[in-house]
Design goal:
3-stranded antiparallel sheet; 54% helix; 179 residues; alpha+beta; 6 strands; Nucleotide Exchange Factor Grpe, Chain A, domain 2; single chain; 2 helices
């Protein structure tokens, strides 16, 4: 056994660390824990950002798929809308005595156009507007005293847009100006 006054513990037991060494070790442990916490916080923030990006991307893809499916349906529906419009025009000219029935079908056609408009579907009616090859398909040219050259004189078949996406171009007759 050690009888020295400096060392009250036996020689086979470790001597306690000096207070400065203990504080340094605790500071090192604290810094390591803070660095690890910062690393986990960064990982957490990045994971939240990735999740938010995934949610936005999934919502955008879902919306794109819905719009593509709607566009396909409306492309198939466009000829039926044209035929309804042409049928009503023909019935008004050929059978004025059936005005009540024609008026009923016009109400239904208007209701159908209203429902389609609520979902972003709208008709292109460019009469009098400048010809735009992005939205119009020129079928022919015709001279006109009233409509300036390069402007739409007549719409033969209406075009359709779905949320600013062209479903079908309008078939038009373009003015060639005065003779």
């Amino acid at each position: 056994m050690n009888t020295s006054a400096d060392s009250p513990l036996p020689a086979d037991q470790p001597q306690p660390a000096q207070p400065a060494d203990a504080a340094g070790a605790l500071l090192a442990q604290l810094e390591a824990a803070q660095a690890e916490a910062a690393k986990f916080k960064d990982h957490y923030v990045r994971s939240l950002a990735d999740l938010d990006n995934f949610r936005r991307r999934a919502a955008r893809e879902k919306d794109d798929l819905r719009r593509a499916a709607t566009a396909s349906l409306l492309e198939d529906l466009a000829p039926a809308l044209d035929n309804l419009r042409l049928g009503l025009q023909s019935a008004m000219q050929a059978h004025p005595e059936a005005k009540a029935v024609i008026d009923g079908f016009q109400l239904v056609a208007g209701q159908l156009r209203g429902v389609l408009a609520q979902h972003g579907f709208r008709e292109i009616d460019p009469v009098g507007q400048p010809f735009d090859p992005k939205f119009h398909e020129s079928v022919s040219q015709q001279p006109s005293m009233d409509v300036p050259e390069g402007h739409v004189l007549q719409v033969l078949r209406p075009g359709y847009l779905l949320h600013d996406r062209l479903i079908r171009a309008a078939s038009v007759v373009v003015s060639s100006g005065k003779k």
